[in-house]
Amino acid sequence: MKLANVAGRASVLIEGRVLDVEQASAGQLSSDPMTLADLDVHPELRRLAANADAESLPLPLLDQKDLQAPVPRPSKVIALALNYASHVIESKKTMPEEPHVMVKFPTSICGPFDTIVAPHGRPMIDFEAEIVVVIGRTCKAVSEDHAWDVVAGIMAGNDISDRGEQFRPPIKQFSMAKSYDTFGPTGPSLVTPDEFPDRDDIGLDGWVDGLHTQTARSSDFIFSVARQIAWLSRFCTLNAGDHIWTGTTGGVGESRTPELWLKDGSIVETEVDLVGRMRNPVKVG
């Protein structure tokens, strides 16, 4: 299934048309987009979508400007710092033996076409195209063999980062640098794992002002999705709706020659196979 937050309402996308979950279920299911991250609801969503398709219901066409963050209020936004060899090399780091984790504040999350607002006086704003995994049920100590069983779906994300704050001495502020409001665009849809021909080989691409800056596949991960979930759930309970940002690939702005920083008027695009492409303008203000 391809699920989406359309104008603030939980929806299923069917060939470019919108099935409103609350309306289709006659009020039995909530319009809250967080419903989309609940794996216990997914069988009913599939049934509603199948009925709509079978009955050829006159569903409204999707207007992309109505798309918002598919899972807008996660309890946790967990991010991996180094999960592609290309990014480890360009960052001049050693290859990690276990996941290197940081967090983004949930208030950083915004939609696939929302404006990224960069604060005045912060000239080193960077981009990090990522594949985002959304957890679908409360879980703890999940084995790698069963990790995909707790995944609600996949989104695109861009981990916007203030490198000046991130590396400012005397203490590096990774999480703060990535947690400004709007520094976590996600979307444009939430696609369930069964839709991918190979859920461990998903394509990711990023552009800045039309320049193709990043490209990778999830098969390039140092730590697979299953490994990430198993490792994280050793430490903390994962809840339905939690985001796992799986890391960025090589090509970020700080590692380029010359460096490439986001500026007022920049356009950041992020695309994940089947999920779609986000397009976020940047405003300094």
Blueprint of the fold:
Blueprint: E1 2-6, E2 9-14, E3 17-20, H1 21-24, H2 42-54, E4 67-68, E5 77-80, H3 85-90, E6 101-104, E7 109-110, E8 116-118, E9 125-126, E10 129-135, E11 151-158, E12 161-162, H4 163-166, H5 174-177, E13 184-191, E14 203-208, E15 211-217, H6 225-235, E16 243-248, E17 267-272, E18 276-284
Parallel strand pairs: 5-16, 7-13, 8-18
Antiparallel strand pairs: 1-2, 1-4, 1-13, 2-3, 5-6, 9-12, 10-11, 10-16, 11-13, 14-15, 14-17, 17-18
Q: In the CATH scheme, what's the topology name of the largest domain? A: Fumarylacetoacetate hydrolase, domain 2
Q: Count the beta strands.
A: 18
The string of secondary-structure elements, in order, is EEEHHEEHEEEEEEEHHEEEHEEE
Shape: globular
Give the helix proportion (percent range): 10-25%
CATH homologous superfamily descriptor of the largest domain: Fumarylacetoacetase-like, C-terminal domain
- The stretches of 5 or more residues where confidence is low (pLDDT under 50) are none
Overall description:
This protein folds into two domains: 66 residues, no CATH class; 214 residues, Fumarylacetoacetate hydrolase, domain 2. Strands 1, 2, 3, 4, 5, 6, 7, 10, 11, 13 and 16 form an eleven-stranded mixed sheet that branches. A hairpin with a 2-residue loop joins strand 1 and strand 2. The longest helix is centred in the N-terminal third of the chain and has 13 residues. The model has no long low-confidence stretch (mean pLDDT 97). The N and C termini lie far apart (38 Å). By secondary structure, it is of the alpha+beta class. The chain contains six helices and 18 strands.
